[in-house]
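During the first year of the project, the team set up a workflow for recording each protein of interest as an amino acid sequence followed immediately by a discrete structure-token representation. This format lets reviewers and collaborators read both layers of information side by side without switching files. As required by the reporting guidelines, we include two representative entries from the current panel. The first entry is reproduced here exactly as it appears in our internal archive.
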Amino acid sequence: MRIRLYLAALSLVGGAGVATVSAPPATAAACSDIDVVAARGTFEPGTLGLIVGDPVYSALQRKLTGKNVSSYKVNYPADLSLTSAAQGNADLVNHVNRQAASCPNQRFILVGYSQGANVVDNSIGISSAGAVVGSPIVATIPAALESRVAAVLLFGNPIRAIGKSVTGTYQSRTIDFCAKGDPVCEAGGNDTLAHLGYTANADAAATFAAGKV
């Protein structure tokens, strides 16, 4: 039932402009070796995200042997409101800043699915404006903290449908999955079910991230 509701919601998704917003202050969590910061997709159920966040986090826990791994669910609406992705962008950057200040040795793995990929894109300086449920950048991870982002894991990334991708500083640390026919990340794609299949990529994403830690 949850998947069917999510699938129905996808049919409503469209591009939107957005105004600058700020996130409420985040509270720093305990200091782990690796903090997995996950931004879920539009209306996606689950703790970190049923389709991507939860299975990716489980896979990372298995792969990162000998590491203490924590998680953070980006606090944002993940809905069709005009400021949704921007709120996620602000909250993600706020969380990383606070954690980095409290935990000098902590590193981060950023995970984004669908609208959550827009959130991550913006946070690393790649604007999702013009993409499905995208927004202009409202905050970016400071240059001083860039090296502490070990990996960026993206799934069904809407900016790909408008011919963009992660370039620059984070390019070599990014893996970006786009299933064939997924209309959210592939221009002209017409297989909506393809957008729901990224659980199958969780292990590959975790393997990639483990190689960057």
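The second entry, processed by the same pipeline in the following quarter, appears below.
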Amino acid sequence: MEYGFTQKLFGYFYHSSCMKQAAKQKLNINKKAIKQEYVSIMKNAKDIGKSRLMSSYCMGAYFIALNRKTPLSPEACYELYKDGLSSNKLFHIAVGNANSYLDKKKMPDRLKWSADSHLHRYENDWVVDIIEGTPQDDFELGYDYHTCGICNLCRDEDCFELAKYLCRMDYVLADMMQMKLIRTKTIAEGADSCDFRYGRK
């Protein structure tokens, strides 16, 4: 895919967050090698157009690069990633909060995104159904992902086993936004879909 401004911006954001955390932990890491590997993965990745989840696609690419170019275990890489992003104040601002995320005014746009995703314009992009919670439900907003871009990218890069670690980041993000996330299955762990159900804490 084209390695443009958006891919560079997300790469810089993830890289700076993780490297600051690595410095705190006094880890001996080759920053340049990780960055170069990220660029290589993104250029080799299948195009997903102007996907709403480009940030997640880039997150997946950076996590793969981090695993390839450090001696750390996948678990240690995940902890580095989680702690790096969690300590980044800008990241907290960017993800928002429960009120902004669960705003019902966003539903029409989300439903359009869902319909567009089922057109399968891009092989590696996410395919999703949106579920609006009712007063009888224990959630306000749900997603059923039938195709996952991160899983596709990890599969293409012959490291599908790494996808499950990035699934755990969804709980970290939900916690940042003061939301609860209930999920019973993921594609990364062999299921046919991922069922996300978000509500307020």
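For the second entry, the following points were noted during internal review. The first helix runs from residue 5 to 24. The CA atoms of residues 124 and 152 lie 6 Å apart. Both points are flagged for discussion at the upcoming steering committee meeting.
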